[in-house]
């Protein structure tokens, strides 16, 4: 990605294709994407479940995971573990993994206060050599794996899906909940109005290219931290799942409105896949 020489910051250009990750770059590639410094901000947004979590994400995740007592679920890119209570209320065992130590600390603190036996680990879900987890946590394979609002924050979804497959039992389920990749692309989509036709429409500037999009966030005062959103077309997700040994069982488009354009353009997408 080009850089602003005066300010030393990455310069975003619509349509910029994400660079391929090489082995030499892998160890350092996303060490400072801002998520650890954004943990307090994220806690305020999603702690306990933002409206999007409560109203849309968690109910759909619960149904898609088909949770039963005794099931083991690993939540990849778990943040502070918003999914944990859903798993535990169904009698399941929850393990959360995130590479941001601040997120994991928050998840552990909340779980401890609630008397939960959930496990949380700091680890990168997208390393090609696999997710670094202690042996006692992985001695038994998992029934389900999830990416809840996390796959588009992960720079190498292909490696992430392969790692999920390594952790799952044969026939295990993978559930992904994400912003709709065709209609909800940060900085590259939005609403428009055609006054002549009295029409509100959804504008999409670019879709096919895999694009890295920096998202600056103010975390208090003048402090600004940048995280990154990784846009890919649906074809890229389905292909990566297939290459990792998954069979897509269902793709569900989720709408957040009850009238008007919000009933025509989906806000979220849920993908359910099974390890073959």
Notable features of this structure?
alpha/beta, 13 strands, seven-stranded mixed beta sheet, disordered N terminus, Rossmann fold, two-stranded antiparallel ribbon
Q: How would you sum up this structure, described in words?
A:
With 276 residues, the chain is α/β, with parallel strands linked by helices. It has a domain of 192 residues: Rossmann fold (3-Layer(aba) Sandwich). It contains eight helices and 13 strands. A seven-stranded mixed sheet has the order 5-4-3-6-7-13-12, with helices on both faces. The chain has a two-stranded antiparallel ribbon with strand order 1-2. Strands 8-9 form a two-stranded antiparallel ribbon. α5 links the parallel β4 and β5. α7 runs parallel beside α8. The chain is globular, with a radius of gyration of 19 Å. The two termini are 37 Å apart.
Task: Provide a quick synopsis of the model.
With 276 residues, the chain is of the alpha/beta class. It has helices spanning 23-26, 39-46, 51-65, 84-89, 101-113, 135-138, 157-167, 234-243; strands spanning 3-4, 9-10, 72-76, 93-98, 119-122, 142-148, 168-179, 189-194, 199-204, 211-220, 223-231, 246-254, 268-275.
Largest pleated sheet: 7 strands, mixed
Low-confidence stretches: 1-33, 45-49
Name the CATH superfamily assignment of the domain at 32-180 and 233-275. Vaccinia Virus protein VP39
Structure summary, number of beta strands: 13
> How large a portion of the residues is in β-strands, by DSSP E?
25-35%
Q: Based on the coordinates given, report the CATH architecture of the domain at 32-180 and 233-275.
A: 3-Layer(aba) Sandwich
């Amino acid at each position: 990605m080009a850089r602003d020489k005066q300010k030393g910051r990455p310069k975003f250009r619509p349509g910029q294709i994400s660079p391929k990750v090489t082995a030499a770059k892998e160890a350092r590639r996303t060490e400072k994407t801002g998520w650890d410094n954004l943990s307090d901000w994220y806690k305020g947004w999603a702690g306990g479940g933002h409206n999007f979590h409560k109203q849309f994400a968690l109910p759909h995740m619960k149904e898609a995971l088909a949770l039963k007592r005794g099931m083991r679920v690993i939540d990849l890119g778990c943040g502070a573990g918003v999914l944990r209570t859903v798993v535990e209320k169904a009698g399941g065992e929850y393990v959360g993994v995130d590479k941001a130590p601040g997120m994991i600390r928050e998840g552990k603190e909340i779980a401890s206060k609630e008397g939960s036996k959930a496990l949380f680990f700091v680890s990168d879900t997208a390393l090609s050599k696999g997710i670094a987890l202690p042996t006692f946590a992985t001695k038994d394979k998992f029934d389900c794996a999830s990416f809840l609002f996390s796959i588009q924050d992960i720079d190498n979804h292909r490696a992430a899906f392969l790692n999920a497959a390594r952790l799952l039992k044969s026939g295990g389920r993978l559930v992904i909940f994400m912003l709709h990749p065709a209609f909800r692309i940060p900085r590259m989509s939005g609403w428009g109005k055609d006054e002549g036709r009295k029409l509100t429409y959804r504008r999409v500037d670019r879709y096919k290219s895999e694009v890295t999009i920096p998202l600056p966030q103010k975390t208090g005062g003048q402090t600004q931290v940048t995280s990154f959103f990784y846009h890919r077309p649906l074809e890229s997700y389905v292909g990566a799942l297939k290459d990792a040994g998954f069979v897509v069982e269902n793709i569900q488009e989720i709408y957040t409105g009850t009238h008007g354009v919000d009933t025509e353009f989906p806000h979220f997408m849920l993908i359910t896949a099974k390890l073959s």
